[in-house]
Each structure stands twice: as structure tokens, then as C-alpha cells.
Design a protein that fits this description.
Layout: E1 3-7, E2 10-12, E3 18-25, E4 33-39, E5 45-51, E6 58-60, E7 68-73, E8 78-83, E9 92-100, E10 103-106, E11 110-114
Parallel strand pairs: 2-11
Antiparallel strand pairs: 1-3, 3-8, 4-5, 4-9, 5-6, 7-8, 9-10, 9-11
Length: about 120
């Protein structure tokens, strides 16, 4: 089992940047396929990005491609999401997700609000 704690959210103006972190504990972080998923007000869950545990390949939703960068530090058991050129439509609660085999785990989420 793994515990996930997101941080780094907040209020930022359009065009600004934020860096989200997801600290993990309780299991071998490097063995997990990690993702960021968000939920905007009144909407369903939207996959944002993921990073593979084997070769570190990264994938992005079209809505964030070129603006967001996912990364992981296996030595620190931490997942990151660097978000640049933020837009009001990026406003959401951002969750990190860890998956391995039949199991997946979620953090509690961190709020990102993009507004002037």
C-alpha cells in the first residue's frame, strides 16, 4: 500500500506557474506508474499526465501539452507537475494517482485556481 500527499496548489494569475508535488510513503515508489488527474468544478475527472515506472516515458493530455511537465524523483519518493502558462480553464483540484497491477491509490488533492 502507498500513501500520497499532494501540495503546491494555490491561486495564480493567468500566465503564471505552479509546481505541484506528490510525496509518497509506504511502498516502493519506483515500482508505481504515476499520474496526475484533475477535476474542475462541476465536472468529472480528467486525466492530465502520466509517467511510466520502467523507462520514465511521459504522456500528456492535449489540453496541457507544451505547458505542463511531469517528472519523478525515485530517490525522494516524489512526483511533480510543473505547470506553466496557466489558464483559467486549468482551475481544478489536482490529484496524484499511483498504480501497480490491480491496485491504485489516490491522494487527497490540491486546489489550483487560475484567476486574475
Amino acid at each position: 500500500q502507498v500513501q500520497l500527499v499532494e501540495s503546491g496548489g494555490g491561486l495564480v494569475q493567468p500566465g503564471g506557474s505552479l509546481r505541484l508535488s506528490c510525496e509518497t510513503s509506504g511502498s516502493t515508489f519506483s515500482s508505481y506508474y504515476m499520474s496526475w488527474v484533475r477535476q474542475a468544478p462541476g465536472k468529472g475527472l480528467e486525466w492530465v499526465s502520466h509517467i511510466k515506472n520502467d523507462d520514465g516515458s511521459t504522456y500528456y493530455a492535449d489540453s496541457v501539452k507544451g505547458r505542463f511537465t511531469i517528472s519523478r524523483d525515485n530517490a525522494k519518493n516524489t512526483l511533480y507537475l510543473q505547470m506553466n502558462s496557466l489558464k483559467p480553464e486549468d482551475t481544478a483540484v489536482y490529484y496524484c494517482n499511483a498504480a501497480r497491477g490491480l491496485y491504485e491509490y489516490w491522494g487527497q488533492g490540491t486546489q489550483v485556481t487560475v484567476s486574475s
